[in-house]
Amino acid sequence: MKKLFSLLMVVFSVSSFAQIMTINVDEDTWAVCPTDLVDVNVSRTSPSNNSISLNGTSSYFEIPFSANTSFGNANFTVEFWVRSNQSAPLTVLASSQSALGVGWAVLMDLNGNVTFAALDATGTANSMSGALSSVNDGNWHHVAVSWNRGTTDATMFIDGGFEVSQSFPLGDITSNASTILGYGINPLNGTALYTNAEFDEFRMWSEARSIGDVQLVMSTHLNPGSFPTLAQNFDFNELTTTSGWLDCAAGLVAPFSGTSPAINVSGGPSMTFNFAFTWNAVNTGLTQNGPNFQELLEKHGQELK
Q1: Phi first, then psi: what are they for 175, rounded to 5°?
Q2: Both 150 and 288 in a single domain?
Q3: In this structure, are 40 and 180 located in the same domain?
Q4: Is 61 found in the same domain as 19?
Q5: Residues 246 and 200 in one domain
Q6: 55 and 25, same structural domain?
Q7: d(CA 305, CA 302)
Q8: In whole angstroms, what is the distance from residue 63 CA to residue 178 CA?
Q9: Hey, is 244 helix, strand or coil?
Q10: What is the residue range of 285's domain?
């Protein structure tokens, strides 16, 4: 007679994000020798893809300064998903700038066109603006900017497509500043600019990503261990704000504060989830092939070791 056993294991992460793993043991009879192997099939729930929501008046997301994303004169790529219907002359989507403005910023204008701007330590500035795509229509859009410091070319991609490219022959842009989503200071009058938007999957890479690279993983929940150039990765899949938000690539925590965003459960863009199945080989006889593994049964087949 066929028997089916299920074991539910709840795994909690530092960021209070939980997933359910179900292990099904399926065998025809228990009349097996102690050394026989039984196939164990593993399935895992696909968690909902949460996002963070900024109210446009007082909230923003702040990532503490990290040496991992202080690129100086080195290549880098910044990418994120954003959903907004805000129409303002100037909206700051993401930035990392010192009090003097040294660093970089991704901006949005009244028509929803995206601008990338940077200022180096010598005071030299450059900017480029897209005109092909509008991202303030209330739908999710993916924004990526790749900067090759060797060729000096900076390239913007919107929703995985080419938007604009321009030479950025700048020097060191080290800011020693936090990275902020959804807030900035208007350079013309010094007023605060808050963004009414949702953000998801904020990533920074220590390389100039190509259009193919961007397209390949823009809609995929990443396992940072498989991407050595992934310098920062906030997937925003926390269940509560009180513990802050975890950078899955480097372990950095963006702490909760009075200006922190809200969580929009299941509010993020459609995302493919890929998980790494890693088993603790505390017993002999353990083998793994993708999501399937084998384990020795006890002599009378009463339970898994």
Answers
A1: -110, -20
A2: no
A3: no
A4: no
A5: yes
A6: no
A7: 9
A8: 5
A9: coil
A10: 3-47+275-296
Cα end-to-end span (Å), the chain: 22
Tokens 């949005």 sit at which residue? 108
DSSP 281: -
What CATH number did the domain enclosing 242 receive? 2.60.120.200
What is the spatial distance between Cα 151 and Cα 147, in angstroms, rounded to a whole number? 9
* Each residue's pLDDT expressed in tens, for the chain with a length of 305 residues: 333 323 333 333 333 444 555 555 555 544 555 555 555 555 555 567 999 999 999 999 999 999 999 999 999 999 999 999 999 999 999 999 999 999 999 999 999 999 999 999 999 999 999 999 999 999 999 999 999 999 999 999 999 999 999 999 999 999 999 999 999 988 888 899 999 999 999 999 999 999 999 999 999 988 888 899 999 999 999 989 999 999 999 999 999 999 999 999 999 999 887 655 454 444 444 544 444 444 443 333 333 33
* DSSP states of 6-72: EEEEEEE-TTS-EEEEEEEEEES-S---TT-EEEEEEEE------EEEEESSS--EEE---GGG--T
Q: What is the DSSP letter of 247?
A: B
- Do residues 62 and 21 both lie within one domain? no
The answer to whether the CB of 201 falls within 8 A of the CB of 83 is no
